[in-house]
Design a protein that fits this description.
Blueprint (H helix, E strand, L loop, with lengths): L1 E7 L9 H5 L5 E4 L2 E4 L20 E7 L5 H10 L24 E6 H6 L3 H6 L3 E5 L1 H4 L4 H10 L4 E7 L5 H14 L5 E6 L5 E3 L1
Parallel strand pairs: 5-6, 5-7, 7-8
Antiparallel strand pairs: 1-4, 2-3, 8-9
Helix pairs in contact: 6-7
Length: 201
């Protein structure tokens, strides 16, 4: 069928991932540092991705495309991993990996990813991810995190921690790392309850 659907200009795209986050259907992914339309039938043609693109790289076209498939989108959203890199453990990640540069950084406690059911779509989508447990590792992550922030153009840091006291070390390490990096970066700290609910955002 002929219908309205997005097209992405590869030359203009800077791979920032804002369109991927804005797309409620997960129709857009980042591949080789560029945004791509993953499947025609995931695109609803409403264009939530268009206004967030800072490079004006996304436009509507009318072309032959599969009809929007809400059921396929819902199944994909339930099953799709948003992990775009490896490794993810704070102790293992290199400080100068390409996936950090120009990204938002998610610093997650190990348990938060298990406790919050919609963790991938809510927190990981389009972000570089590092995880750790300050109680099990018994280290101060701030030095490694500060190196990552100093070495890369990170736009923002989001922390997901559990409500348990030991997780405060992770949030404190991030705040310390931002200060030591010498950069002014926004930091969001999200606390997840032991029953899986978000306590504060």
């Amino acid at each position: 069928m002929i219908r309205k659907i997005i097209t992405i200009d590869d030359e203009k795209c800077n791979g920032c991932g804002l369109c991927s986050k804005a797309c409620h259907e997960n129709a857009i992914g980042i591949e080789n540092g560029k945004a791509v339309l993953l499947r025609d039938d995931y695109c609803d043609g409403l264009g939530d991705c268009l206004p967030v693109c800072p490079m004006d790289a996304i436009h509507f076209v009318e072309r032959e495309a599969l009809e929007y498939d809400r059921e396929a989108v819902e199944m994909n959203m339930r099953a799709k991993s948003q992990l775009n890199q490896w490794p993810i453990q704070i102790k293992l990640v290199p400080t100068t990996a390409d996936y950090f540069d120009g990204s938002e950084l998610l610093v997650a406690s190990d348990c938060s990813a298990y406790a919050y059911a919609d963790f991938h779509d809510k927190f990981m989508n389009g972000r570089a991810v590092v995880v750790g447990c300050p109680k099990l590792d018994d280290v101060d992550y701030s030095e490694k995190l500060a190196d990552i922030l100093r070495s890369n153009a990170v736009k923002k840091v989001v922390v997901t921690r559990m409500e348990v006291p030991c997780c405060s070390k992770l949030a404190n390490a991030v705040v310390k790392a931002v200060n030591e990096s010498g950069k002014e970066l926004p930091v969001e700290i999200v606390t997840v309850g032991i029953n899986g609910e978000i306590i504060n955002y």
